[in-house]
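Form 7-S
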Amino acid sequence: MPSSASRERLLALLPAFAGKRLVVAGDYVLDRFVYGHPKRVSREAPVLILRFWKEENLPGGAGNTAANVRTLGGIPLAVGAIGEDESGRTLLRILQERGIETAGLSVVPGYDTPTKTRVLGGGPHSIKQQIVRYDREDFLPEDDVLRGVIAGWLERLAPGAHGSILSDYGYGSVTPAAVPTLRAKMKPAAPLLVDSRHGLLSFSGADAVTPNEEELEESAGEDLGDSAEALGAATARLMERIGCKTVLVTRGSRGVALVEKTSPPVLIPVHGTDQVADVTGAGDTVLATFALALAAGASPLEAAHLANFAGGVVVMKMGTATVTLEELRDAISSDRTLLAP
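Output:
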């Protein structure tokens, strides 16, 4: 299998992103960023005091995946659960402001919407550095009624979708049962992708999965190091166990690795510099782009290159960011190292 793709072909695929409808089911999270300017060291404890500058709220988890689908021209169909709380209301508002349909997000009384708060500090004219992060986490109860509602939305939206994404951050909005539910209603050619933080081995039957290296090592039960052979063996075992045809491994500053059945890994170096600004949510961007590309008719190799370009763009932005179609087109057009002439 060739390790590169044609620039002309990748650019030709981008217009096909427009209007592609993707079910994005999973754990919708609020990412909160609190920024401050250094004031002094506290007399009470050896800690820095920040003077508050601003607060920013962004969609995280499956919400970030949906946001990236939207900025790339696709139509995300959100399915999941949020809490009946301030974070949930904020998250709903943000998604709606971005043109994302939220009817499939069930509001669950007593459930705290997962909220990840990052505190960043720096001078007024300098890049802000993350100082601490704290997470407010809750887990959805085993509620047959809620499960039925979520399954109902999957069954309702899947027939009109060009593909589906399951984004499992471990909070309980989606379970492995979502795979056969979607399969029964989706068009035969529509791709089904899964990204799971700690439950990848439970999601059998997907067309593709997108673990990072840490998640692949967790599924393999061993440290893979820098060995391409070990990575290939681990992905082969993973594909065999969950009946999956394609694995796209995100590797941080080393780019991505694509593995298909009967083929050795294709290692694609990171686009741009490996001196990144912020990796927050980059995996969601890769997942959204990979899924959209497959739905638009790209081969797995072409989709992997597009996802790698998108990831390279978004890690140069601060916070939970998205990539636009124009940025992706510019990245492909300006590349002089990754693509075939």
